[in-house]
Amino acid sequence: MSRIRGSLASSFYGHLARAAHAGGGLLAFALAASLWLGSGAKAQETQMIYPGSMAVTGFPGTVIPNLDAGLPPGVDPVDETFIDTTRATLRVFDVSHLGGPAAGQLVFTPPPFEVTSGQIGEVFGLTYDDGVRDGVPSGIPNLYAAATSLHGIEIVTPDADNDGRPERQRRGTAGAAFMDGQFGTENGGGPGTIWKIDGVTGQVAKFADIDTNSGPGIGNITFDPNHRQFFASDLDTGLIHRIDATGRLIDTFDHGVAGRPAHGLAPVADDGAVMDIQGAAFDTEDSETWGYTQDERRVWAVSYHGGRLYYSVGEKSEIWSVGIARDGTFAGDPRWELTVKADRDYAVTDIAFDNSGFMYLAQRGPVENRYDYSRFADSGKGEVIRYWRENPDDPATESVWVEVPQEYAVGFPQGNRQSAGGLDLQYGYDADGNLDTSVCTQTLVNTGDKLRDNPELAERLAAGGPLGVHGVQITPKDLVKPANVPPFGSWLVDFDGYFEDPEVEGHVGDVAVWHPCEGRAGYYEEIPGGYLPPFYPPDFPPPGNLPPCLDVEDVQYYCTPSGLEADLYLHDHAGFGGDSIKAQSRTPGVAVTSPMSHAPGKPYTINITGHYPGDRVDVGLCFYRKSDKDKGGYYPCCKMTLPLRTPAVSCER
């Protein structure tokens, strides 16, 4: 079996000829870059996801089976070209060492972990869970990938000419089936399947299945760590599915019917259209025949943040959100957030938030599917932008978000708008390109096409590697336009390590980074909250007429990378002489911890977890003298309970 490493089967022989006459240096460069592609995905004995690991989806490439036997005269090679089920549709890269300062160069990483299209089919959306295994945090998450039609729909009928290959079909016909590698059917997958990749072993299993999806696939997926559940958008029906941690579908939210009226828009129910690959109306090159739900109710991206599920709708993209209630259900309070302001009305296929309150959006061009596998999206005009909330809110504007977003330069082609529709936040990098996990969400990663293709800059770019790069751009998040134009302040990673297909479009998909944030780096803005007057437990009344031993002067709340933090400003009002404090939760199900026990000054910091935003949390405080405790046995402890009014904002972890 001979494999075509480029994606254009019709130009395979041209690629071969050009490679034979290519300069030795460039050819050796390309070969060295592709060495890691020699082995397929294998389960590992140790973990395959680490802090900073970057997962990327994309088209796996094509193959002509039995090509060594030759093709009959007059046969178009494209008609005999199929998805290569032995090549990866998902790769997990180690991008912890980028080899030097950013200069717009291609970065060569260690061999990535791979999952092939034969295992899971073609996938787009990605998310990680929280790494809880058997109820115990492990620090190693699992990765989830969702079936997609964004890399084309290919169909076949059984072999009719005895050449050992099925027959490719452009139009729907009796007996048609999805091509191998389209939806991972050999492992029981379909267009509504979400796959789980174990973060320790790398083993792949079907996690969940929206079995009513006829072929359009899933827009994107996200994980809610507060309730340990997932949300997935269904491009067939427009529904957002809520899925528990075991993969069980629980319920749905219908934006078209329940969401639109909240903004004065008429409800739009699903028209019931489905993808019928055996019907004469189906056309592989016309996505209008694929059974997508109507544009007005078509949900693409989903992202859980701050106790709400944010999602994008339609080609002229609107961003909406709906609250997630205490019990994890949809709260029934859909809210229009903004209508995306960009040059093109392209779908937003990914949403991410950093720990400073910025919302990042990635556009992807309209769905296409060239029969020769060359193009799956209208590329070259998609933007990567970010919004932030008005502070204070401008009552003259309809949205609470700023009207005009900031934009990033993506790729070197004219206009720098090469977004392929995927983005996420990454840790920071030092001046030498080494990952710095002490700095959270400091870097933007986004997928793009033709990232190093610009003839006017070819000479300068050549020093940084091949020009035909389709993959991920890594950029410090502060470098918004006009900075970093052209993006020589970024690093680039190619998805598949082949550089002979500079003209393909839409072959890269989503990107997701595992970036658990720890410590106190990267506060949000201070968030509003409060407290009620403290009280003594009934079994510990204040002695005589003494005032309370502790006076609460103020409580300030912050969202930190590790969750909600409260700074307690306390005063030894009664002159008790204590120098230490111990905190304990008095509210069932809520944990209160502190990095300190000895508290000689201000503030006394506690972390609160397990509560629902806006809940009252009772914190028991024991104020004592460390010297008394050190003597052993019973020691005097002035006890009080401080009722905290936690902010109605959920902090990302």
From TrEMBL:
SUPFAM superfamilies linked to this entry: Calcium-dependent phosphotriesterase
InterPro entries reported in the protein's UniProt record: WD40/YVTN_repeat-like_dom_sf
Source organism superkingdom: Bacteria
Listed name of the protein: Uncharacterized protein
Lineage: Bacteria, Pseudomonadati, Pseudomonadota, Alphaproteobacteria, Hyphomicrobiales
